Each structure stands twice: as C-alpha cells, then as structure tokens.
Amino acid sequence: MTELITASLTVGQISLPSCLFVNESSGSNDTDLDQDRCFIPILVLNSVSLFVCLFGLAGNGVVLLLLGFWMKKNPFTIYLLNLAIADFGFLLCMVVFLVIILLNVPGDIHGGFAAREAIQWVALFIYNTGLYLLTAISVHRCLSVLFPLWYRCHRPQNLSPTVCALLWALSVLVTGLECYFCITRDNCSKMTIFSCVLSFLVFSPLMVLSSVTLFIKVRYCSQRHQPTKLYVIIMVTVLFFLVLALPLRVIVLMALLSHTAIHLLVKNLVILLPCLNSSINPFIYFLVGKHGRRQVRESLKEVFQRIFKEEADPQEKRPTKRAQEPATEKPSEHG
User: What is the CATH number of the domain that holds 279?
Assistant: First the structure.
C-alpha cells in the first residue's frame, strides 16, 4: 500500500518505496508528460478521496461513540469497535496525506515529505489491521453457527478482546518488518511480497471461506427462519472489502512481480477505493438495521441496539431460563 501511494504521487526514485513502481525502461520525460496530462483527473480523484474520507470520519466517529460509550458490549460489538477504530485511523491518515498533496497544487504536487512517508506506513499498519479484524469477525461468527454448543458453553469469556489485541500486535509486527526492510535494507520488495502473500493466502481465504459458509448456512436456515441482520452485515461488509480494499494489495503485488509502471490514474483510483471501503461500513450497519422498518422512526442508537442485541451471550440467558422453571413447577407440587 505504501509503495502504491508513494509511487502514484512522486516523480522518479525519490524514496525507496517509489523505486518499486518506476519502470526502469521508461525515461523521466515520458513520466513528466504523463503527469502533465493527468494533472486535472488526478486532482479531481484526490479531491473526491478527501471528501469521502471526511464523510467516513463522521460516520465512524458516530459508531465509535455508540459502541464505545453508549451501548453494552458483547463479543461482536468488541470486534466492530476495533474495526471502527481501524477505519477511523486509516481515514484520518488519508485526510492528512491528501491535504499535504492538495496544498502543493498548482505547483509541484509530487514533492516529497518525510511526514508523508510516515503517514503512509501508519496507514498501511491500520489497513493490515482492518483485514485481520474482518477475518476474525467472519471466522468468529462462522464458528458460532457451526458449533453452537461449543460457542455457548466452552468459548473463553475474553476471547474477543484477546483476539483483537493479538491481531493489532500482529499488524505491528508485519508492518514494522516491512518498514524496517524497506528503509534499511535492499530487499524491500521481498518483504512486501511476503506481506501480500500473508494477506492473500492466509487471511483473505479464511475470510472468504467463513463468509461463504455463513452464507450457505443462512440460506439454508432462511427457509424456516428470517436470517438475522447480523449475518447480513458481516457478508455485505466482507463483500465490499473484497471489491474495494483488496485491489490495493493486488496492484502492489502485480507491480512488484511484473516490474512495470502503473498508470497514474489507476494508482490514484486504487487510493480512492480503500477510502470508500473504510467510509461505507457505518452506513451498511444503519441501512441493514433499518431494512424492513421504513415507517418506524428510530434513532441511530436504537437501530444499533436492535441489531447487536442478537449477539447477546447465550450463556447469560440460559441460567435465567433454568431459574424460572422450578418456580413454575412449585404450585403443582403443593396442589
């Protein structure tokens, strides 16, 4: 991701990540001509990306307030809270990055800044975290459907916060190694390929497999029961991630393996897509929650409470049900 963003907004081999996207066979004159031709479209794309990021910051900010302070936490909301933190952080990084770029218009919009490099590494770290968290959400919900007895009786009580903490730590490790090798070593491309492989061969397949399993299960159960909105939220969120966010890593991997330059418009478009992905999640929650209740006026808090109430821990409900049974049987004994 860092290599893609940097290369799309720099000329020549200004920094090490930029080198990965410079076609050695093409001259600088051709690159300058290409940038002059694409100046207006790139400016429009970056402006749209900035607007999308600001819009997404507002939406994710509301989700953070609702899930972090105004609602009772359960295993699923803990995952979504961490995902909202990741989305908010990614969008914040992109806002700062795009402002730095746009402030250089109409002069040298491709000037290099050390701050921009740091922002991109932080954005990559948060991007990786979002991928890991979304995979964990899909797998967690899939396990709860396939093994309901284990989920109710044997699931560790602090599983969700523990998994989230481990995934944040894993993202720090992976991104830190990639940053270290790209700054201090010559094998930056190898480490970036390893990071892409980790995304494509480990986390993405797990996410897709668990989501497909969940879809089949929901499809089967929907013949008798209405599928819960929670399942719909997970599947729609995963679908948008695969369409909008994953192409970023695909472009990076293709550029590294082919050693060819990618058109500036394509690069800037791929910057816009993950911004859309991080911005759209709050609206997915709201629209799915409001579906089927068009004539009922509800606040955003009420919509969220109704959706995430479905994830209430069955272990908390089960004892209360058992406790009520003896009370109903006692009158018959005395009678």
Answer: 1.20.1070.10
Q: 10 Å Cβ neighbour count for 180?
A: 12
Q: What whole-number distance in Å separates Cα of residue 185 and Cα of residue 89? A: 28
Domain assignment present for residue 295? The answer is yes
* CA 129 – CA 131 distance, rounded (Å): 5
Cβ 87 vs Cβ 278: under 8 Å: yes
> What are the pLDDT digits (tens) for 96-128?
988 888 887 444 444 455 777 888 899 999 999
With respect to residue 68, please indicate whether it lies within any of the assigned structural domains.
yes
CB 210 within 8 A of CB 139: yes
Distance CA(100)–CA(177), nearest Å, equals 26
- Domain of 240 in residue numbering reads as 2-312
167 is written with which tokens?
């995934």
The verdict on residue 37 lying in a domain is: yes
- 153: which residues sit within 8 A by CB, 6+ positions away? 315
- List, for residues 85-97, the tens digit of each pLDDT value: 999 999 999 999 8
> Which residues lie closer than 8 Å to 170 by C-beta, 6 or more apart?
132
Q: How many structural domains are present in the chain?
A: 1
**Does residue 218 belong to any structural domain of this protein?**
yes
**Tally of helices (H runs) and strands (E runs) in the chain:** 15, 0
Residue found under tokens 């490099």: 117
**Closest residue by Cα to residue 276 from 230, 252, 249, 241:** 241
- Residues near 300 by beta carbon (within 8 Å), at least 6 away in sequence: 62, 66, 286
The conformation of residue 145, written as its DSSP 8-state character, comes to H
The pTM score is 0.79
- What tokens were used for 312? 């209430």
Q: Which residue has the tokens 């302070």?
A: 69
Angle at 17 between CA 12 and CA 23, to 5 degrees: 45
